């Protein structure tokens, strides 16, 4: 199969890929915001947090008919690789998806890694395709959305106040933009608490967090146009950092924001810090970014604790995503 790797400096190829992505969104996830060229180019250059993946294009008659996404982490989980396949809605059920998936599996195999992972919507056609390619379902993740125009500020304040009483030995720090140099190592250690979140049956190892990864994430989000907001809980006024929650607000999509990691270190759990952090973030975000209406988050379906926090704050289910894996 002849594929062309997408170069972020190739304006024509980027434009053709944007057309392809928007067609897929319209057909498959019309409830999601549109893709942005800035976000696509940033992902090609920086990935999510400094480790960019590969996007390969299947081009037919000058148009993108399909894509193959590959990601080979170098800092952790070097036993596996991510494989993502997408086909233009007008080109499906003609063998392109299978050919792209087989190519991706061959490349994972050639790299020496033993496992391929991927994700699909929880829908009949993509799930059947993954199973037909030999993948086994290993996780369920739920996408939820908060409509800030419908969330009662008094209710959020009530939840925040109750949590603050349970967490009276902690103080909160609001931080926008990059983490200060004197805190970056401690923030990396705190961020690693996300490894305690449920991963169901996925064959994955703990992710490695260090200052380089924190800075890589910040650089990637800045390139994508996402302004970072972070609320951090600290023991007392000068004690260790205990937990955080983080939101990204895309400059080119003023109605939208992404609720990313919320994590509390094990030694500080049991004080309702998760609720305190997220409720405070909602209050801050409404004041700092009044144009934001939609706030999306994702959790393992088995993460009952965080789902309870989210639903109390008004998050509602949008859709479910399935995680898949197979040996190569």
Tally of individual domains: 2
* Number of continuous helical runs: 9
Q: How many strand segments? A: 12
Biggest pleated-sheet summary: 12 strands, mixed
SSE-based structural type = alpha+beta
Indicate the overall shape: globular
Q: What do the pLDDT scores average to?
A: 97
Strand content: 25-35%
| CATH topology group of the largest domain | Aminopeptidase
Architecture overview:
By secondary structure, the chain is of the alpha+beta class. Helix content is 34%, strand content 30%. It contains nine helices and twelve strands. The chain has helices at 11-28, 37-46, 96-110, 124-132, 153-166, 184-191, 211-224, 273-288, 304-312, and strands at 4-5, 54-60, 63-71, 80-87, 115-121, 136-147, 170-176, 226-235, 241-250, 256-264, 294-300, 316-327. The protein has a twelve-stranded mixed β-sheet with strand order 1-2-3-4-5-12-6-11-10-9-8-7, with helices on both faces. The two termini are 19 Å apart. Keywords: Acyltransferase, Transferase. This is Acetyltransferase (GNAT) family protein. Residues 1-162 form the N-acetyltransferase domain.
Short overview:
This protein has 328 residues and is an alpha+beta fold.
Which key terms come to mind for this protein?
328 residues, alpha+beta, Aminopeptidase, 2 domains, twelve-stranded mixed sheet
Task: Indicate the topology.
Blueprint (H helix, E strand, L loop, with lengths): L3 E2 L5 H18 L8 H10 L7 E7 L2 E9 L8 E8 L8 H15 L4 E7 L2 H9 L3 E12 L5 H14 L3 E7 L7 H8 L19 H14 L1 E10 L5 E10 L5 E9 L8 H16 L5 E7 L3 H9 L3 E12 L1
Parallel strand pairs: 4-5, 10-11
Antiparallel strand pairs: 1-2, 2-3, 3-4, 5-12, 6-11, 6-12, 7-8, 8-9, 9-10
Helix pairs in contact: 2-7, 5-8, 6-7
């Amino acid at each position: 199969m002849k594929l062309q790797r997408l170069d972020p400096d190739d304006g024509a190829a980027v434009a053709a890929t944007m057309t392809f992505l928007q067609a897929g969104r319209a057909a498959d996830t019309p409830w999601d915001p549109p893709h942005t060229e800035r976000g696509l180019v940033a992902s090609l250059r920086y990935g999510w947090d400094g480790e960019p993946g590969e996007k390969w294009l299947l081009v037919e008659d000058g148009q993108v008919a399909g894509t193959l996404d590959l990601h080979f982490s170098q800092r952790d989980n070097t036993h596996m690789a991510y494989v993502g396949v997408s086909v233009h809605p007008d080109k499906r059920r003609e063998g392109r998806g299978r050919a792209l998936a087989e190519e991706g599996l061959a490349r994972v195999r050639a790299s020496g890694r033993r496992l391929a992972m991927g994700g699909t919507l929880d829908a009949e056609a993509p799930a059947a395709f993954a199973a037909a390619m030999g993948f086994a379902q290993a996780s369920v993740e739920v996408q939820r959305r908060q409509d800030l125009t419908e969330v009662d500020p008094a209710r959020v304040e009530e939840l925040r106040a109750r949590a603050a009483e349970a967490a009276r030995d902690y103080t909160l720090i609001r931080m926008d933009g990059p983490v200060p140099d004197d805190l970056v190592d401690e923030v990396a250690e705190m961020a690693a608490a996300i490894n305690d979140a449920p991963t169901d049956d996925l064959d994955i190892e703990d992710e490695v967090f260090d200052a380089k990864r924190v800075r890589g994430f910040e650089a990637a989000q800045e390139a994508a146009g996402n302004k970072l907001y972070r609320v951090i809980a600290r023991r007392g006024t000068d004690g260790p950092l205990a937990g955080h929650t983080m939101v990204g607000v895309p400059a080119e999509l003023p109605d939208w924001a992404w609720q990313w990691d919320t994590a509390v270190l094990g030694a500080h759990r049991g004080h309702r810090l998760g609720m305190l952090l997220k409720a405070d973030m909602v209050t801050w975000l409404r004041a700092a970014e009044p144009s934001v209406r939609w706030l999306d988050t994702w959790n393992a379906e088995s993460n009952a604790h965080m789902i309870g926090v989210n639903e109390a704050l008004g998050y509602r289910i949008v859709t479910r995503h399935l995680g898949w894996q197979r040996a190569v």
